[in-house]
Design goal:
The protein has 487 residues and is of the alpha/beta class. The protein is 33% helix and 24% strand. β16, α10 and β17 form a beta-alpha-beta unit. α5 packs across α14.
Amino acid sequence: MDRTPQPLRSPRPEPPVTALTNLTFDQIDLGASLVIQHTVTRHEVELMALVSGDANPFAPRDGATAAEVAADGPVCEGVSAEALIHGMLKRQLPGPGTVILSHQLAYGGTARMGDELMATITVVDKQAPDQLTFDCQVRHADTLLLNGTVTVRAPSRHQTVDERDPGNVVLRRNDVFGRLFRECESLPPVACAVVHPCDASALGGALEAARHGLISPVLVGPQGKIQAVAEAQGLDLSGVRIVHTEHSHAAAEVAVAMARNGEVQALMKGSLHTDELMAAVVPSATGLRTGRRISHVFVMDVPAYPRMLLVTDAAINIAPNIVDKVDIVQNAIDLAHVLGVAQPKVAILAAVETVNPEMPATIDAAMLCKMADRGQICGGLVDGPLAFDNAVSLEAAHTKQIRSEVAGQADILVVPNIEAGNMVAKQLQYLAGADSAGIVLGTRVPMVLTSRADSVRTRLASAAVLKLLAHAQAAKHAKAPQGGGQA
């Protein structure tokens, strides 16, 4: 930001970099002015949409195509330039303590994310004891976005405001889980084997999902332990089927057999270790494998991101090769279709956005993109390599001049390996406030791998994804020719 205030009656002392210091009415002369240069950010566009009632500033407008919006970035009306002027008046000239009394402003044009704006305010009138009138202009290149005057009451005393702890506004632009819950309401609950639910969180989560009509639980495990947990937690098992097994290994084997036989349409992990359950799922002869590689997807509701975000694979495949990644990508695309994304945008993540022979993740990304071009991956737009910022931030993609229908607006993030996926998913959860639901794909029936750390909302969202996927798979099998194999 370029600050060039002039002329001022007496120079103000240099404040700390974290502080805002004002000028009083008596310190400001006619002709005093301030000029700043400001780059429009995505966050500002979202905030303006929030206060102005614009439902979706990222949607195409005035006949623009989605590709044009992706290239040029989201748009806010010229009236948004008023916020920039108000900020200059209340933060710098006169500064803290300023009260805006009236304005006469005209607006023209639009401002896009990434635009460089030039804003100027100049004192054109002083009326004792404290009123100042400013001529105000905001320009982008040759376009005048704002022009007119603003009258303020200047502060009467000197004031410095520390800005080290500014207010933080987090927007939840898209209630992902709320939409999933609503889509589940018209569907009957899914018969789901809950494997070894022998602690309070596993049993309570399954019963809560049942109470919301998401699943019809079949509890598979040691009956005495299950009943003891229910009694200790005050949980009602009336009408809930329990299939007794001696231990957790047996529970996994029995639940998988029930899924193979069609007794249940889904599995939910209880208090056994994930490896125990997967050991029963993976064998070709007795498990639940299909022709696809088994993979895991986190369905994420990130408050600051304007769409549902899928992250894969952060839980099952440790170091997938290119053949594995084809299935991982296709599994995620198919899930996105079930969740209502008609043509998901798939970002293949790496540390950089250019192909580098010394970085295997970038080579894999380039191969996956070409395979998508040739129809070996279907149903989505695939692009990569993309660094994380370029995948989720239109601003970052714009800055690096990346022209892509995926960059900045990815629906699916495909990570290079399990370490990267685990870090991405957990950082979104614990630093960005994201909620997440997890689902296992590539199996005969959908599976949920719950964790003791999961919140109630997360458990219910996972069950909602499981329900939608189970019904989609049932509908697909009903349409398939008799005797056809399952992909």
